[in-house]
Write a structure and sequence with these properties.
Blueprint lengths: L3 H15 L6 H23 L4 H24 L10 H20 L5 H8 L12 H19 L4 H6 L10 H18 L6 H20 L2 H27 L4 H23 L7 H4 L3 H18 L5 H4 L7 H36 L8 E8 L12 H11 L3 E5 L13 H9 L2 E3 L11 E5 L3 E9 L7 E10 L2 E9 L6 H16 L5 E6 L7 H9 L3 E2 L10 E6 L2 E8 L9 E7 L12 E3 L36 E4 L3
Parallel strand pairs: 1-2, 7-8
Antiparallel strand pairs: 1-12, 2-4, 3-4, 5-6, 6-7, 8-10, 9-10, 11-12, 11-14, 13-14
Helix pairs in contact: 1-2, 1-4, 3-10, 3-15, 6-10, 6-11, 6-13, 8-10, 8-15, 9-10, 9-13, 15-17, 16-17, 18-19
Length: 637
């Protein structure tokens, strides 16, 4: 007879995976919450029951599972396949069902015997009474692993800077992070003296500081050293954790610390929208310092032994432990090899897609706030976003709110994903550790140089910007892209407009501005950009705008379009087409607006896939021109 609790927990755990296929986000959240609760109960029972060898293998299986997830995310270009692909979710769900069924039924005849053994499980370990310290340390270690090493591209995004000295690109240099994590696990098989443990902790502490405060390659090297340290202490801290005499208290403490640190991480960036945010603003250094302190105390006060030594291994079990370690090492390096292969294949494919672009004088620029690629129903939809971007035929794209390299957004990299998918050069924008919501740039043509800016934000959220130069096959054009603060922060917006107008003023004679400035046409901030930045609005007759704007200088405007979001985001796409004049000192801009595309050459038409001219909003769930666009520009004479 299968115990009811075991069947219910297994079904709930599988349900959490199936929640990806739920009809709406609310149901998905409820199912997922029940599944997470069940998985924690199953994990607690699993880790605190069975004989020493079983528990040893289960804990190592958990750690190898983390490495395997990183490898899968490499093959899915930073996405978690369970939450990004219907096919992958279904396959993993089927495998999970088979494993759960086998787990429930295979040992039915041995259940009484195992129950008797379970009572002695904790006595087979070197008991550790300090469940509070061990729980906080293990929960902190779990969060650190998710926060900084939940995907191999994260270190690069913490260390990123502008072109040409961007630091290590996540592909292929994410492979060094994977290697660092693997070498950390290999080091954990050693036994450490008190002196070497203390010295090793100081190295880990220094590397965490370097990741926060160094730049580009120096920060990346520090991050890789931190990867080695993090996985090196995993087996020891996990062994001490499962040696606690009170499993419920230990696991509850660990999850409480984990969730508390996750919320603090949210508060560091979203401080303007949460209670008490003024005290946590941009305080990742405090969070990382607290985590390292908790890990260090538990690491330094515990036995300096590998995981198998924490269990009281009987002499007749030692060959089994030794054989298990060999299999563990074999699996570890097999996973690493598969991961490195994935990075290599992706890198080769991406390099083939990149090119110089077709030589031409005309180009199109686009701005879109796509909210981390989550649609209006709460589902991640990078594939839909890529299809939309591809259909616009834009040569230069800036995307607002693009930094999903955070544990509460998905720990994925939309910039890398879109760059590889579309074959565009990329600029990630200000780094993840700068506490912005992100701004990225994608270019069909090579990026010559770029500088990342944090605009003045004394009261509100940190506003990011990028100033850059793109080489349109020998013709250099500057771009300034920016995301201003919220409407409520008047001082912030005033200072940000002044800062961006200065960037525009000091740019070359040919510049395009793509910005999200939360102000109406003709407002103070709008006027600051136009007058002091010495730029022109792409369409000064369009008074029904609020956030997204396109401005320019030293170019000939050809067209302007607004495309409805169709639920893919909560904001529309704006596009403009320009021509680079042959003689900058003697050219005339187009000053006449037409809405009949037949009056302009066909090669400057916007993609007819989005329909034709349309007045007012488009409320249909399709991407369509709207708001009295598309418009084209030509000479009056």
């Amino acid at each position: 007879m299968v115990p009811l609790w075991k069947a219910v927990l297994s079904e709930s755990l599988l349900g959490s995976l199936a929640s990806y296929q739920a009809p709406n986000a609310s149901i998905r959240l409820l199912i997922l919450a029940a599944g997470v609760s069940s998985s924690l109960l199953v994990q607690t029972v699993t880790w605190w029951s069975g004989n020493s060898l079983q528990r040893f293998i289960r804990i190592w299986g958990f750690m190898l599972g983390k490495i395997m997830l990183l490898v899968l995310r490499i093959w899915y270009t930073s996405l978690n396949p369970v939450w990004s692909s219907q096919a992958a979710n279904t396959v993993i769900l089927i495998i999970g069902f088979i494993a759960a069924a086998e787990r429930i039924y295979s040992d039915g005849d041995k259940r009484t015997q195992e129950a008797n053994k379970t009572g002695n499980a904790i006595r087979e370990t070197v008991s550790h009474p300090h469940w509070l310290l061990s729980g906080v340390a293990f929960g902190s270690l779990m969060f650190l692993t998710l926060w900084i090493f939940g995907e191999v591209s994260l270190i690069s995004r913490w260390a990123v800077s502008g072109h040409p000295h961007t630091g290590p690109d996540p592909n292929p240099y994410g492979g060094t992070v994977l290697l660092g994590l693997a070498h950390g696990l290999m080091l954990s098989f050693w036994s450490w003296s008190s002196v070497t443990s203390f010295a090793w902790f100081l190295v880990g502490l220094a590397s965490s500081t370097g990741l926060l405060y160094l730049h580009t390659w120096s920060a990346a090297v520090a991050g890789n050293i931190l990867a080695v340290f993090t996985m090196c202490v995993w087996p020891q801290l996990a062994g001490r954790f499962v040696s606690c005499l009170h499993p419920g208290k230990a696991m509850s403490t660990a999850m409480f610390a984990y969730v508390l640190e996750l919320f603090f991480c949210v508060w560091c960036t979203a401080y303007k929208f949460v209670p008490g945010g003024v005290y946590t603003r941009e305080s990742s250094h405090l969070l990382l310092g607290f985590i390292m302190l908790c890990i260090g105390v538990d690491f330094l006060t515990g036995p300096k032994k590998d995981l198998s030594s924490i269990f009281e291994v009987k002499s007749n079990q030692k060959p089994l432990f030794k054989r298990s370690k060999n299999y563990i090492k074999l699996l570890l390096w097999l996973f690493v090899g598969v991961g490195l292969l994935g990075l290599g294949l992706r890198y080769k494919t991406y390099q083939k897609k990149l090119g110089q672009g077709v030589p031409k004088r005309d180009f199109s620029a686009m701005i879109w706030p796509f909210r981390f690629a989550y649609d209006n129903e709460g589902w991640s939809n990078l594939e839909g976003s890529a299809n939309l971007l591809d259909q616009t035929d834009a040569d230069f794209i800036t995307i607002i709110e693009s930094d999903a390299s955070k544990p509460f957004i998905g720990n994925n990299d939309p910039t890398m994903w879109l760059g590889e998918r579309l074959g565009f050069y990329t600029d990630f924008g200000p780094s993840t550790r700068d506490h912005t919501w992100g701004i990225m740039a994608l270019s069909r043509y090579p990026i010559v140089k770029s500088t990342h800016h944090l605009l003045p934000s004394p009261e509100g959220e940190i506003a990011p910007a990028i100033s850059m130069t793109v080489n349109f096959t020998g013709k250099l054009v500057d771009f300034v892209v920016a995301h201003f603060g919220n409407e409520e922060e008047d001082l912030d917006r005033k200072l940000q407009a002044i800062a961006v107008s200065n960037l525009l003023k000091t740019s070359s004679k040919q510049v395009v501005f793509l910005g999200y400035i939360t102000s109406a046409p003709g407002s103070r901030d709008y006027t600051e950009l136009i007058e002091n930045g010495n730029v022109k609005d792409i369409d000064s007759t369009d008074h029904d705008r609020w956030c997204s704007y396109i401005m320019y200088r030293g170019l000939i405007r050809l067209g302007y379009a607004r495309i409805s979001h169709a639920g893919l985001s909560d904001s529309e796409v704006q596009m403009a087409k320009f021509r680079i004049p042959v003689h900058l000192d003697s050219y005339a801009d187009n000053d006449r607006i037409v809405t009949d595309p037949s009056q302009v050459p066909e090669d400057i038409h916007f993609n007819p896939r989005f329909g034709s001219y349309k007045d007012g909003h488009n409320y249909e769930q399709i991407h369509h021109f709207h708001m009295s666009t598309p418009k084209y520009f030509k000479q009056k004479n």
